[in-house]
Amino acid sequence: MSFPQKSNGNRILRRVRPRDSSTPPPLIDISVSQVQALDSAAEYYHYQYQLLKDTIEKLGLKDAVYAYMQKNDLTMQDLNDPAVFQRVVDALESVAYSSVLVGTAAVELTLPSSYDLRKQGRVGQIKNQGQCASCVGFSSSSVIESTMMTLGQTLTASPSDIFFCLGTGAAHCATGWNVGDAASKIQSYGFVEDSCFPYPSTALASGQDATCVHSSCSRHMDLQMTLLTGNQGVAMQRVKRNMMTNGAVLTWIVIYASFDTMTSCRNQEDASGNPISAWKLQSTDTTPLGGHAIACVGWNDSLQAWLCQNSWGSSWGNNGFFWIGYGQAGVMGEAYGFF
User: Fold this and answer.
1) CA–CA separation, 65 vs 61, rounded Å?
2) Can you say how many angstroms the Cα of residue 251 is from the centroid of all Cα atoms in its chain?
3) Are residues 160 and 283 in the same domain?
4) Buried b / exposed e across 39-64, counting CB within 10 Å, b at 16+?
5) CA dihedral sign of residues 160, 156, 217, 188
């Protein structure tokens, strides 16, 4: 991938064009150096994960773990018990088989080749951020809703509260916010339901910042945040495990021209909802336009792609969802989960 020439890595990239309903919402302002860092991290994490999986396959470690489990009458469900998991790792660890490789192989046995939280009934509502760069608030609310469903509670979280209250002073319709700060604020200050602070029509239609509404609603203080990336080879394994056990994952991507339309990412699934294609960078995508926060809700190893939820309305993509290739446009270069 090529990037714009720069004399200053902190130069801000900003898509400039009129705002109207026929074009996607404004994007998060990002610097050239941020683009390079996110893109490099995503490619590295995905490469290291595939390298680990190839090594495990070559050594036959999954077969070894499975044989040990059969011999000791253990099930896949048993591997969710930390004590049992450590017992398996300790039993197979040797000079040739490091604890990291054995542990990775054991976890891989529990991961299906494809997963879709939609089919589990654990995805949040498809929403529309309109003409405000409030994608961080919307994607965070979708992740919260998915996590709460996993915990047995169905609700609609307020993206307005996340963006205009938790992000006070930092989040703006013209420039956006960042996913790390949002995840940290949600852990510290909780969230409110959408009825407490509905999305302002002025933000939706004309991209105007709103003043925080301090409602009398009690704040949900249920969730803890975890950074899923940063652990090199096992980062993508951690992302998959989080989706299965806790729900959707919060991440962000770099937007390029081939993605930046209201008609992109359509027809990626067949009539039965099975994926048939995924968005990938095109040869013409040489200039980053900005950042965009999303909630990812599944994967497909055959397609080599993540399933993600957008906030550009249900008419965009595949009823508001889309598939994006592993490591493309910085996806999962930075990712958070709640539990």
Assistant:
1) 6
2) 4
3) yes
4) bebbbbbbebbbebbeebeeeebbeb
5) negative
CA 127 to CA 291: how far, in whole Å? Answer: 18
For tokens 């900003």, the residue is 14
Of 259, 269, 263, 261, nearest to 298 by C-alpha is 269
For the stretch 20-34, pLDDT in tens is 566 789 999 999 999
Q: What is the pTM of this model?
A: 0.92
The helix or strand, by DSSP H or E, that contains position 119, with its residue range, turns out to be: none
Domain with residue 252: its CATH number is 3.90.70.10
Residues in the chain: 339
pLDDT at 19 over 70: no
How many domains would you assign to the chain? 2
Can you spell out the DSSP letters for 61-109? HHHHHHHHHHHTT--TGGGGSHHHHHHHHHHH--SSS-HHHHHHHHHHH
Q: Which of 54, 72, 162 is nearest to 108 (CA)?
A: 54
What digits encode the pLDDT tens for the residues 33-84?
Answer: 999 999 999 999 999 999 999 999 999 999 999 999 999 999 999 998 999 9
Range of the domain at 159: 115-338
The residue with tokens 């993605």 is 259
**Any idea what the Cα angle at residue 145 is, between residues 140 and 151, rounded to 5°?**
125
Residues 98 and 133 occupy one common structural domain? no
Distance CA(201)–CA(178), nearest Å, equals 23
pLDDT in tens, 120-157: 999 999 999 999 999 999 999 999 999 999 999 999 99
Contact call for residues 139 and 294 (beta carbons, < 8 A): yes
Q: Please check whether residue 285 lies inside any domain of the structure.
A: yes
